[in-house]
Amino acid sequence: MGLMEIELAKAVHRERLADAARQRQRKECQRMAREQEAADTADQRISPKVDWPIFSLRIGGFQLVAFRTVRLGS
Q1: Which residue ranges are recorded for the region named Disordered (predicted)?
Q2: Which DSSP string do the residues of 7-57 spell out, in sequence order?
Q3: What is the pLDDT of residues 11-66, one digit of tens each?
Q4: Average pLDDT estimate for 2-13
Q5: Which of 41, 46, 48, 68 has its CA 20 to 30 A from that of 57?
């Protein structure tokens, strides 16, 4: 094995290590994004939502009511 082949093998090895590091970093970012999304979803499930009436208008037997959804809690 000549010097050129050794240098080429080292370069290929460095490239593979860099690819593996990028792939690990990408998977870690995806995992963190999934965990953050799950935490946000859990927060939304914990804090209840209530439809709060803003105004109502009654004309005879007909009633019109406008609601605003309000999230209770923090």
Answers
A1: 23-44
A2: HHHHHHHHHHHHHHHHHHHHHHHHHHHHHHHHHHHHHHHHS-EEEEEEEEE
A3: 999 999 999 999 999 999 999 999 988 877 776 667 778 888 898 999 988 999 99
A4: 92
A5: 48
Cβ neighbors of 59 (< 8 A, separation 6 or more) are: none
Phi-psi region of 60 (alpha: psi -120 to 50; beta: other; left: phi over 0): left
Give CA angle at 29 (32, 20), nearest 5°. Answer: 135
Task: Report pLDDT for 43.
Answer: 66
**From residue 60, how far is each of 55, 56, 57 by CA, in Å?**
17, 13, 10
pTM metric for this prediction: 0.50
Question: How far, in whole angstroms, is CA 42 from its chain's centroid?
Answer: 12
Q: How far is CA 30 from CA 9, 36, 67, in A?
A: 31, 10, 38
Residue with tokens 């037997």: 61
